[in-house]
Design goal:
The complex is a heterodimer of chains A (333) and B (199). Chain A has 333 residues and is an alpha+beta fold. Chain A has 8 helices and 11 strands. Classes of the chains: A alpha+beta (333), B mainly alpha (199). At the A-B interface, helix 1 and helix 2 of A face helix 2, helix 3 and helix 9 of B.
Amino acid sequence: MTRGPMKRDEKFPIEHLSDEAWLRIEQRLFDPAVGQLRGLAPAPRPTSSTGRWLVLAAAALLLVAGLGARSLWRGEATHASRRLVAGELAVESLLGDATVRLEPGGVAQLHERAGDGARVVLERGAARFAVPPRKARPRFIVQAGEVRVEVVGTRFRVSRQGERVNVSDDEGKVRVVAFGKSVLLQPGMSWSYPPATSASSAPHVSTAAQPARAPSAPDPDPRATSAAPAAPLRRTKAPAEPDVRARFEQAARLEASDPERALEGYRSLAQGTGAWAETALYAEGRLLLERGQRARAVPLLRGYLRKYPRGGNAADVRSLLSRLGEPSELEPR
Amino acid sequence: MPGSTSAAQQAEELALARRCAEGDTLAQRELFARQRHVVHRTLFRILGNNRQIEDLIQDTFVEVFRAIGSFRAESSLNTWVTTIATRVCYRHLSRREPRATMSLASELPAPAHNPEALMFSRQAVQSLYAVLDRIAPTYRVAYTLHVIDERPLEEVARITRTSTLVVKTRVWRARQMLRVRALRDPCLAELLGNALGAV
């Protein structure tokens, strides 16, 4: 066969599917509630004609169940999705019981499905996540291109620029699954693709656990502006006052180890003015709520809405109050 | 030879298939991650667009996981999965009504050529798939896999579970139909001549 001057893939380009499309397919297949593979357990190999008929009957039942599940997925499954876009400021949002902080320049889709947990598709940029230990809780997954991060329960950061992906674990454990391999990250470890030691773009990545960068180390992702540990702030001024920012980050770091001191730090900051005061007030209310101190949290969150009705965290405060069954619609003054 | 595997790869693929067959979700996700682009490429080559492709990819993997217990590593996992994708696609083509026209041009990403050549090329690809839409799915599958996706006749025969001779005949018949159309379509004629070999 003779070949023309143009390469085949140029003449017949493959139109790639979007991350969102792949996500939909994967969910339809693997969703434990409605996924088509649900119940597709191995069948014993038939040893007789009776056994073979039994297997065929079971397969027919599974097929019917699969078709039913597919209809359910297409029609009635509970699924909430939204897209988060961070401009010059970081954006923070709640996703189930987790906090997602999208760093400046980032874009992510947040998906939440009843019974199947949450999934974040990081389209570009970097995001930090604070996720309570999963154990019996629904799954929490971050997808960044070909890389999937399955959360065991942790604070971690994922950055993506095109095909380049970096995952660093600050606390707890995360499992990174990519190109058919998986690696469990412990606190202080990071994983990246392509590996720093290799310039090739081979489809199979060799994972290498490396010590996490110090918080002050430069970030390889030009879109990411902060390498600080996960901090529950919604909107921050990029060139923030260093002492206020440092105080906030110190409080954020103490959340897990010494929550009372973290609360003190937030309280002190909330008495000030500006974006950090606003964020600290929200953080204080949220942390109190996480610690089960509803009676103290609710007045603070209401106070937040009175003081910052259009604040960067106002939507999340309303969401929190709504979940608590508290009136969330306070008239802006 | 495409489709052949080394012993180590064979053993690894067999182990993965066994884990999938045992219902190991992690293994199933791994297989999905490895093979999804293979499946998409195969389906896209046959169909020429991404309409309905999500459903077909999904159907392919449902069949893959349903049949994974029968994978014996006689061919590579790639070839085995491609066989299933092709079968799913063939079924889809057999069921649907023939289409009069296609709107492929708007769906194709722009390669880096001059605009005139690009438009010419898109129009030609559009014409090509418009003709393929009207011919029997068996011819279409054989032609797209062999001519457009550049798979050897032997591999297409393995994928379509038929003989090399039959594949050759199907490709020849598809070419004949395209040739008739190319007499009235200079874009298609150029495409067939330049990119797809002499008809």
